[in-house]
Amino acid sequence: MNARTRKLLCAAEQAVGRLVEKCHKGDPLYATNPKAVAQVSRTGKWFLNALTPFAQARTTAAPGERQERK
Q1: What is the pTM of this model?
Q2: How confident is the model at residue 70 (pLDDT cuts 50, 70, 90)?
Q3: What is the pLDDT of residues 12-61, one digit of tens each?
Q4: Where are the domains of the chain?
Q5: N or C end of the chain: which has fewer CB within 10 A?
Q6: Contact assessment for residue 18 and residue 44, using Cβ atoms and an 8 Å cutoff
Q7: Does residue 51 sit in helix, strand or coil?
């Protein structure tokens, strides 16, 4: 996985994480449309779970690939 792909996946993971954090019952956004907010939350959590293998790949270098410092 090249550096550009790693950066893109990290940005997506952070953005979806922020979105999921905003989608809770105490947030004013939930009061406007609870069904839509719940759907976004579920889908976002699913997406974060789907990104897990890529997140693990970011932290381990492939054979012959140098590990980047964070």
Answers
A1: 0.71
A2: very low
A3: 999 999 999 999 888 898 999 999 999 999 999 999 999 888 777 767 75
A4: 3-57
A5: C
A6: no
A7: helix
20-25 own/partner pairs: CB under 8 Å, 24+ apart: 20/44, 20/45, 20/48
C-alpha separations of 4 from 11, 24, 30 in Å: 11, 32, 35
Contact 69, 8 (CB under 8 A): no
And the tokens for 12? 């997506």
CA distance 48 to 55: 10
**Amino acid residing at 2:** N
Please list, in sequence order, all residues whose beta carbon lies within 8 angstroms of the beta carbon of residue 23, skipping any fewer than 6 positions away: 29, 30, 37, 38, 40, 41, 44
Length of the chain: 70
Residue 42's pLDDT is 95
